[in-house]
Write a structure and sequence with these properties.
The structure holds two protein chains of two kinds. Chain A is built from four helices and no strands. By secondary structure, chain A is an all-alpha fold. Chain A has a single domain, classed as Orthogonal Bundle (Non-ribosomal Peptide Synthetase Peptidyl Carrier Protein, Chain A). Chain B is an alpha+beta fold. Chain B folds into three domains: about 15-120, Orthogonal Bundle (Butyryl-Coa Dehydrogenase, subunit A, domain 1); about 120-215, Butyryl-CoA Dehydrogenase, subunit A, domain 2 (Beta Barrel); about 225-375, Butyryl-CoA Dehydrogenase, subunit A, domain 3 (Up-down Bundle), CATH 1.20.140.10. Chain B has eleven helices and nine strands. Chain B has helices spanning about 15-25, 30-35, 40-45, 65-80, 80-100, 105-115, 225-260, 275-300, 305-335, 345-355, 360-375, and strands at about 120, 140, 145-155, 165-170, 175-180, 185-190, 205-215, 265, 265-270. In chain B, the strands form three sheets. Chain B has a four-stranded antiparallel sheet with strand order 2-3-7-6, with no helix packed on it. The longest helix of chain B has about 35 residues, at about 225-260. Chain B is globular, with a radius of gyration of 20 Å. Classes of the chains: A mainly alpha, B alpha+beta. The interface between A and B is large, with 36 and 55 residues.
């Protein structure tokens, strides 16, 4: 599939589940494209001078679409999107389970 | 996302539009003057899932895409912004349950909304409007219960609601709890002098020591209100935006009909150049708002992260367009439209409120400016 920005969504179509490195690399690219800034995997995106809560929601939608997961309930907290490392952990936790019906950005 | 969308049903739902026209078309003025929509109308629409048509099929919903739900919302908005506001609240409640609830809570609660129970989402407090980090309502764990204490203001649909989704402060941060409107300690005080959307069931809510089971607290609890509120409001903003497209369509139709049907100085109003300009500006506003809404809804349906700012932009374009456009329509209809209950008089009052709720025009502009700066 193709993401809205036109990139080929390699993470989702590669067949076997992507490694932590793949997930992190895709996220770092996404962040760089969106913010015109390179981020470190452990860097706090929402620290002073960082991203807004609207950007956090963009990350929610991006992760859901890229990894076909649903992020809701107790997982919908800012700390899960604070760093690339935290997002990799969240994806690993959620992608084992089928997406909750209709939860994703629909 | 497509997996719960009704198959091969992407176009507007003409049957549902006809039902809304049949129920509201001739009565919206009367509802506006009375400040109330008959409950049986709301129950009937609610039980068909039409007040929150994006709720997934698996929860008894219609599984509409954002685009299809938006077109329906615009249709209702062209008839009656009070009824459209009820839809916005019901839809936002269903969306909030799906986002903040875990799978079990979603399965328990969303079907109640698609089955006809009515729900309101209570954010605003006297001291917490645009700044929802200032919420003071307390959600306190007490054994296997949660105790709710606080006061909410200007909650749309609260006067009709069976369920209230109440945002407040827990020991751990900010969250939302589902409170039956009939629970002891809940007092709903209807606002009887609303400037606009007079029949939308606006009410202030007092919650004094209201006890609900612990499971009524939605699992989504965060240290800050930002992400939870942004998520919940996105649905409301999209719905308000489409509702404003409807306001503009209602105004455009009424203004053109009047301008073509009435002569002054021996010439149709539509041929007076200064009047013609009002008609052009109304058309431009309607088209601008419709395109912005279609774009945002299509991003929503594709699961694009760009939906987040597109929704804010659509809300802003549509609400400011509707406020300015309804003023133009008033000017064209003049005394013919200057009666409470008239579609244009209602639009003029209702549209102004749309510049205030779900993120004021100023807050929308701040968000869009932040986006511009962050992505420059």
């Amino acid at each position: 599939m193709t993401t809205p920005s036109g990139r080929t969504d390699a993470v989702h179509t590669a067949g076997p589940l992507p490694s932590d490195e793949d997930i992190a690399a895709e996220l770092l690219d996404f962040l760089a494209e969106r913010t015109r800034t390179r981020w470190e995997p452990d860097q706090d995106l929402f620290a002073v001078g960082g991203m807004s809560s609207l950007f956090a929601m963009q990350l929610v939608v991006h992760l859901e679409q890229t990894h076909q997961i649903a992020i809701s309930g107790a997982d919908l907290m800012l700390d899960n999107f604070r760093t690339v490392e935290a997002m990799v952990r969240l994806v690993n936790k959620l992608r084992g389970s089928a997406p909750a019906p209709g939860s994703v950005g629909e | 996302m497509s997996e719960t969308t009704a198959p091969a049903a992407p176009g507007p739902d003409r049957e549902a539009e006809e039902l809304f026209t049949e129920l509201a078309g001739d009565r919206a003025g009367e509802w506006d003057r009375a400040g109330e929509i008959p409950r049986d109308v709301l129950r009937r629409l609610g039980a068909r899932g039409l007040l929150c048509a994006q709720a997934p099929v698996v929860h008894g919903g219609l599984g509409y895409t954002s685009r299809r739900n938006g077109e329906l919302t615009a249709h209702v908005g062209s008839l009656c912004s009070s009824l459209r506001s009820v839809m916005t609240s019901q839809g936002m409640a269903a969306w909030t349950l799906r986002r903040l609830g875990d799978a079990g809570q979603q399965a328990d609660l969303v079907p109640r909304l698609t089955g006809g129970e009515l729900a309101a989402v209570a954010f605003t407090e006297a001291e917490a409007g645009s700044d929802l980090s200032a919420l003071a309502t307390r959600l306190t764990r007490s054994g296997d219960e949660v105790v709710v204490d606080g006061a909410k203001v200007w909650t749309t649909n609260a006067a009709y609601a069976d369920l209230l989704v109440v945002f407040g402060r827990t020991e751990d941060g900010v969250g939302a709890v589902v409170v039956p409107a009939s629970a002891p300690g809940v007092r709903i005080e209807r606002i009887t002098d609303a400037h606009g959307c007079r029949a939308a069931g606006h009410a202030d809510i007092r919650l004094d020591g209201v006890r609900v089971p612990a499971d009524a607290l939605l699992r989504g609890v965060d240290r800050s209100s930002a992400l939870l509120v942004t998520t919940a409001l996105s649905y409301g903003r999209m719905s308000v935006a489409w509702g404003c497209v409807g306001i503009l369509r209602g105004c455009l139709t009424a203004a053109v009909r009047h301008a073509v049907g009435r002569k002054q100085f021996g010439t149709r109003l539509a041929d007076h150049q200064l009047v013609a300009r009002h008609l052009a500006e109304l058309l431009i506003a309607e088209q601008n708002a419709a395109r912005a809404c279609e774009h945002a809804s299509d991003l929503w349906d594709r699961g694009s992260p760009d939906l987040v700012t597109a929704v804010v932009l659509a809300k802003h374009v549509a609400a400011t367009g509707a406020a300015a456009g309804s003023a133009r329509a008033m000017q064209v209809l003049a005394s013919a439209g200057a009666h409470d209950g008239h579609v244009v008089a209602r639009a003029h009052r209702d549209a102004k409120l749309m510049e205030i709720i779900e993120g004021s025009s100023e807050i929308c502009e701040l968000i869009l400016a932040q986006h511009a700066v962050a992505t420059a």
